[in-house]
Design brief:
The chain folds into 2 domains: 127 residues, Enolase-like, N-terminal domain (Enolase-like, domain 1), CATH 3.30.390.10; 221 residues, TIM Barrel, CATH 3.20.20.120. The chain is 37% helix and 23% strand. It is globular, with a radius of gyration of 20 Å. The relative contact order is 0.17.
């Protein structure tokens, strides 16, 4: 089997509500999505998606995905998509770094490999749990009252997991954490996500003030060096996501005990192939995981669900899905959808969901 054609689509995904991070420093209203269709000489077709969370969140750029695919396409055409390691190496040689540009190609190849084997991707990767994974909401950095309002909106949809954004103002952050904890339900999973919005002294002040609550803070510093500098000076569990980009990052976090939780965002780390190695490092070191799409449609959510299903139930905290946050549906209602706040792994071969091509329009580029 060989890859014979790669078609690239550009789609804007408007958010239902404007979204703020870091105390309003970053605002997002529309996501720039890239959909990739990989065709083979056997007739099998795979789909991938790359949707960064805006252009200013982390080093990932919507137009950059399309430019990266243009650079890599000559090196990918003619390869067997089922040999995902060969495709991974070809992309890494053609374009060092730029992991977010490689993720949709990797996803499409896993989709084809699963279809060829007659297995869902999670089963092909070694075994997919059918335990439904709780979906984590994403509660933007707002006032205490607005936070309550957004959490209630997600609770009404069945959500039991929440990623509450903080950062940028110490007193406001302490008040926000304490207020959310005061209304937190016994079964709820809450992660307080700083998104790199604290300096070291701000991190220590908030985390020390909230030690009695025993809550988990995500990315409480700009870098792993910042997180390492405050490690041992507070008693709060830490999750790392923005600074978890490469396998070397995962190895350092595990070796040096910098975090108790990995937040694996598939688009940021380069796709399922690279993310699976991070999963294994986490499991070997007793580190729990959240698995997340960086943003995007039900395709990106489903990819995250497949990886989450390969993690033992006790070690997978939740998945983050974006589909409830956007106002367009490029898959016509197909694919895993929110059922009582959870996503259920599809049993169909491959990814388990493909877009409605009429909803995508014409490809912006085709390589063959």
């Amino acid at each position: 089997m060989k890859i014979t054609r790669i078609s690239v689509y550009h789609v804007d995904l408007p958010l239902e509500h404007p979204y703020w991070l870091c105390g309003g420093r970053l605002k997002f209203e529309v996501l720039d999505a890239t959909l990739v269709k990989v065709e083979t000489d056997s007739g099998l077709i795979g789909w991938g998606e790359g949707t960064p969370w805006g252009h200013t969140y982390v080093p990932a750029h919507g137009p950059g995905i399309r430019a990266g695919i243009e650079t890599m396409a000559p090196f990918i055409l003619g390869l067997d998509p089922r040999r995902v390691l060969d495709v991974e190496r070809a992309m890494d040689i053609a374009l060092p770094g730029h992991l977010y540009a490689k993720s949709p190609i990797d996803m499409a190849c896993w989709d084809i490999a699963g279809q060829a084997a007659g297995l869902p991707i999670a089963d092909l990767m070694g075994g997919g749990s059918r335990t439904p994974r709780p979906i984590a909401s994403s509660v933007g950095a707002k006032t205490v009252d607005e936070t309550r309002e957004v959490m209630e909106r997600y609770r009404s949809r069945g959500y039991v997991a929440h990623s509450v954004k903080i950062g940028g103002d110490v007193e406001r952050d302490i008040a926000r954490v304490r207020d959310v904890e005061s209304i937190r339900r016994p079964e709820e999973i809450v992660l307080y996500d700083v998104n790199r919005g604290w300096t070291r002294q701000q991190a220590l002040r908030v985390m020390s003030a909230c030690e009695d609550l025993n809550v988990t803070f995500e990315q409480p510093g700009e870098s792993l060096d910042d997180i390492a500098a405050i490690s041992g000076r507070h008693a709060s569990p830490v999750s790392v996501d923005e600074s978890l980009v490469t396998l070397q990052d995962a190895a350092r976090i595990a070796r040096d005990g910098l975090a108790e939780v990995f937040g694996i965002k598939l688009n940021r780390v380069g796709g399922l192939t690279k993310a699976a190695r991070m999963r294994d490092i986490a499991l070997a070191h007793g580190i729990d995981m959240f698995v997340m799409a960086t943003g995007g449609s039900v395709l990106a959510d489903t990819e995250a669900l497949h990886l989450a299903a390969t993690i033992p139930d006790d070690n997978c905290r939740a998945v983050w899905a974006c589909q409830d946050m956007i106002t367009v549906d490029i898959a016509g209602g197909r694919g895993p959808r929110n059922i009582d706040g959870h996503l259920h792994l599809p049993d169909s071969p491959g990814l388990g969901v493909h877009p409605d091509e009429d909803a995508l329009g014409d490809p912006v580029r085709t390589y063959q």
